[in-house]
Amino acid sequence: MTASDWNKTLKQLRNKPAVMQKYIRHCKPKVRKTGIAARKCERCGRFGAHIKQYNINLCRQCFREIAEEIGFNKYN
After folding, report:
1. Strand ranges (DSSP E) for 1-76?
2. Which of 22, 25, 48, 69 is 20 to 30 A from residue 75's alpha carbon, by CA?
3. Same domain for 45 and 74
4. CA 69: distance to chain centroid?
5. What's the confidence (pLDDT) of residue 65?
6. Is there a single domain that holds both residue 50 and residue 17?
7. Do 73 and 43 sit in the same domain of this protein?
8. DSSP secondary structure letter of residue 49
């Protein structure tokens, strides 16, 4: 399983509760404490290039799009 959201597969198994319980017991990924999959962008859901300073919790692409709206100035 990749770093994608594993809950997408649970949506497909909602009609089959026995299969879903078995999937949760054996295939659920462990909760990440470190590494690239530990944090997600709150806006788009990306895993990489995460800015967590000042509790922003955005990826760098989303930060560039909304930086001026949240009060950051660009200095050249």
Report:
1. 50-51, 58-59
2. 48
3. yes
4. 23
5. 92
6. no
7. yes
8. S
What domain range includes position 52?
39-76
pLDDT of residue 5: 66
Q: Are residues 14 and 43 in the same domain?
A: no
The number of angstroms, rounded, from the C-alpha of 3 to the middle of its chain's C-alpha atoms is 9
Sole residue written with tokens 């967590």: 52
DSSP 8-class letter at 63: H
Looking at the structure, tell me whether residues 47 and 23 fall in a common domain. Answer: no
Q: HSE on the CB side for 37, CA within 13 Å?
A: 10
For residues 43 and 76, membership in a common domain is answered with yes
Mean pLDDT per block of 10 residues along the chain (76 residues) reads 65 87 84 83 87 88 92 84
- The pTM of this model reads 0.58
